[in-house]
Amino acid sequence: MTTLLESRRCYQALNPLHSLIYFAPEAEEEFTAAGLRPGRMSYFAGRSAAMGAVGPGTVTATFFNFSPALVAKHIPRAWELAAPAAVLDARLRAVDRALRRLFGAEALADPALAEAAELAGEAATACSAAGRPLYAAHAELPVPDQPHLALWHAITLLREHRGDGHLAALTAAELDGIDALVTHTATGKAFTPEFARASRGWSEEEWSACEQRLRDRGLLDAEGKPTEPGREQRHQVEALTDTLGHGPYQHLGEAGVARLTEIAGRLAQTALANGAFPPGVFATR
User: Fold this and answer.
1) Which of 13, 114, 172, 244 could form a disulfide with 147 if both were Cys (CB 3.0 to 4.6 A apart)?
2) Which of 142, 139, 150, 156 is nearest to 108 (CA)?
3) Within 10 Å of residue 169's Cβ, how many Cβ atoms?
4) Average pLDDT score over residue span 6-23
5) C-alpha separations of 230 from 173, 222, 235 in Å
6) Nearest residue to 200 (alpha-carbon basis) of 68, 91, 78
7) CA distance linking residue 179 with residue 149, whole number of Å
8) Residues 6+ apart with CB under 8 A from 23
């Protein structure tokens, strides 16, 4: 039987293979060619297009830790420039180009990649759509034919499934979007605070006000680090997230999870070595 820890390790091995698209230059090239404006519009439209031409409230709710004001600058304007179907096509072209560059011909031709696509796809068949809007939207998209794209699609389903569950866990802990962002960066195991604040569209004043609220709740200390109650809260959030996201990996089984973790880890290392993420994004302490 697959344990929660094994499920989390598999997710952690898979996640960089999805997330790299948010940093790949190919993404902005394809999105702007489709009509979108450079920058955050491409991200908001690219990730939400599976839900259709939704408004800023829906994007803010499902993405969770972005400033509503930042989202409203780009949505629904994006849908006036490019239809969701065109955005989805552009996204898949960007994924294709980015993975070919980051994996290289040898990894693309490796039968292990196709094996990973099959394993991740099988795991995704056990995802539940109940209460998971981003997962449900992506689950209605067709599975690409090429193994590297099929793998990315399956990883996307697993990621959004777990992500939707994570938002439920955060809400249960009475953390809103900026609360979640500040408490996560405070652990030193996520984005740097500077990158997180700027990329999510929060002002320095909003960030400082949130830190003070969290101090008043006893979750951060005077230096902005998690207190013991703060660490316990994050532990509970992550534990509930693990539980809510466990189903697909439990369905795949211990041997399948171990093999998928192994292959995904190798692919992620190859992508990282080839510059999948820019320096200064993630905390190192």
Assistant:
1) 114
2) 150
3) 20
4) 97
5) 11, 13, 9
6) 68
7) 34
8) 276, 277, 278, 281
Peptide bond preceding 76: is omega within 30 degrees of 0, i.e. cis? yes
pLDDT tens digits, one per residue of 109-121: 999 999 999 999 9
pTM for the predicted model, two decimal places: 0.94
What is d(CA 20, CA 268) in angstroms, rounded to the nearest whole number?
Answer: 9
Radius of gyration of the chain measured on its C-alpha atoms? 19
Distance of CA 45 to the CA centre of its chain: 14
Residue with tokens 């999105």: 31
Place of tokens 């599975």: 143
The pLDDT tens digits for 204-226 are 999 999 999 999 999 999 999 99
Closest by Cα among 40, 49, 15 to 152: 15
Q: Quote the tokens at residue 180.
A: 């979640």
